[in-house]
Amino acid sequence: MTVANIQALGLPSYYSVIMTGTKYPLAIDAALSVHNRLAGAFAAHSSQAGSPSAPDMTVTLDAGAYLANGTLVTQSAQTTGTFTAPTGATRRDIVYIHQSSGVAAVVAGAEGAIFDPTLPAGAIPIARVTLTVGMTVITDGDIDDIRPAWVAFASGSIPYDNSSSGLSATTVKGALDELAVESLDQVARDLAISALIAATSTGGLRGPAISWVVSADNFSTKTNATFDTDHYYNPGGFSQIAQGTGTVIGNMTASGGNAAAFDSDTTQSQAQGADTGNVATAGYVGKDWGSGNTKTVTKYIAYATSDSGFNRNGGGDVTIELRGSNTNDAAAATTLHTDTFADSNSAVKTYTSGITTTTPYRYHWVYMTKSGSGTNGQCIAEVEFFETSSAPEMTLSDDAETINADCELVDVYVLEKTVDASPTRRIRASIDGGATWATGTLQSPDYAVSDKRLYRYQCDVSAQNVGSPSPRSLKVEYNTLNDGKERNVYRLDAVPIY
What we know:
There is one protein chain. This protein has 498 residues and is mainly beta. It has helices at 23-39, 169-178, 186-200; strands at 44-46, 59-61, 64-68, 71-75, 78-79, 91-98, 104-107, 123-131, 143-145, 149-153, 156-160, 210-213, 221-223, 226-228, 231-233, 238-240, 247-250, 254-255, 274-275, 283-288, 299-303, 317-325, 334-342, 348-351, 363-370, 379-380, 382-388, 395-397, 401-403, 409-418, 426-430, 438-439, 441-449, 452-460, 472-479, 487-497. The strands form nine sheets. Strands 12, 14, 15, 30, 33, 34 and 36 form a seven-stranded antiparallel β-sheet that branches. Strands 13, 28, 29, 31, 32 and 35 form a six-stranded antiparallel β-sheet that branches. The chain has a five-stranded antiparallel β-sheet with strand order 17-20-25-22-23, with no helix packed on it. Helix 2 (169-178) runs antiparallel to helix 3. The protein is elongated, with a radius of gyration of 35 Å. The model is unreliable at 1-10 and 150-189 (pLDDT under 50).
């Protein structure tokens, strides 16, 4: 294409002293050629041909090109299959192209329906064709242009349109529901999330969305953040419940009695520790946390006696269980954890995983039985119960990304799975590389993405434009505000708004 005549002025000008004679109409042709590269991509029109026009029930799409997943997709002009006229009432069919190939297809609507039919996954809407009963030719007047604008993302290109005919939060939410199965390709889920970001971001002219996806331990700035496969999290530790908390309960009343299991002496003999006596019975000892009090035990340690292990001179295997209940009945209590092992003197059994922690209980016990014959009671030197301590404050931020100057707002998205209910968080954005920060305000609604949620925060960064250089340096920061709750963060996204 020839564009030399419009480079200096940007657009053809009838009043320009240099655009005389044929230069002006040639400049118009050149400008239209440049314009049509985008505006005419996949434009739909009637396939009527000849003079007079022959009846035709197809639609022709002009050639077009776009970027998808970093690959340029080009498609020459193409014609749909033949449409069939409705028999009972007006029908609205949608012509679309496949996002991965640009190949056209049609999804038929229902006769008499007032809404467009649902598009399949990966479809980009191009045109709405209104079909009336008995019609034999499709004219340009029967075709509505519903092509979306193009919004580029770090992971590819996604169509987006502010109008109701384009991509919306509702339609993308439907796509996300379909993509919620964890076995689907991560790129597909990322594209769907990016589409939702485009569909829900509000404000003025939007720049390309920038994504920081946790695919490795790749965030440049992080505090109290542990990486695990595809996310960062802030695990809490274990805090021992004081041995004097609650009331000691159990059936190990011989030797030192039940209280010996909570006297902070982990090296006691059978004669000093808690003991059932020489009886063929299960042994159990634990705590009543008190009326109106419940606890969730997330770790426990059982200390064997120094001379008789757990099986009171019986040897063999022993089974230790953690049990919980809201009634004082160890035999009928819920088993929260179990382990069977060969008994030995002075054994220390520490358990931090595999414990059921979904329900807090008023009563907890360590419950012991000997496997096989020759049972003669149980004994134990000490029991220690632990609960999870508060999760530490976590901060996440990655390297800055370059954006255009004069950004007014930044919509920041966080994909998060929360272990504890009703967490707080602080989301900030900076367009001067982190020298100045603007704290975001949580916008509604948020969106479910499988077992996670996508939250949107809007940050007003307009004050950072004063005396600022061009281009700008965009950073975002995620912080848990030390609320003690554990979070799992999978990605951060930012959409600059001008």
